Amino acid sequence: MESSRSNVLDDYADLIRQKSFKDKEVLNLCENLGKSLKDNSNNQVRKFYDGLRTIARRGDRVDPYVQLTLYKSRVMYSSARRGGINSQLRDFLVKSLNVILAKEQKGMPKALQDFAEYFEAVYGYYYCYTPKENR
User: Fold this and answer.
1) Which position among 22, 27, 110, 127 has the lowest Cβ density within 10 Å, counted as fewest Cβ atoms?
2) Could you tell me the pTM of the whole model?
3) Do the Cβ atoms of 115 and 30 come closer than 8 Å?
4) What is the largest CA-CA distance in the chain?
């Protein structure tokens, strides 16, 4: 099962480098990505979802490069901790953040908002497929 999880992340990474988070092909991966994150606790996924939404809401009032770089370090820290996020969630977030961080400064807020909305869809599928004991 691990290989199918890796494949969906690999497909996702390839697509987001070439297309937007709102492209039909990328959107079609939401359900499989959500399923691939089901081994994470709801608290962990919700914490990172809420953190990203907070950064996206701030929009142009903060430097998105700085905020996303700090957010990425929190992702890495959590994945290294016992009881933190697993490699699937880490890779999903890091691959997404790397695409946003590679954009020009003026394009970052739009890409960030698009990813925040994409993450919301993935989170919905994650919640649907997560065993009740992980919620």
Assistant:
1) 22
2) 0.91
3) no
4) 43
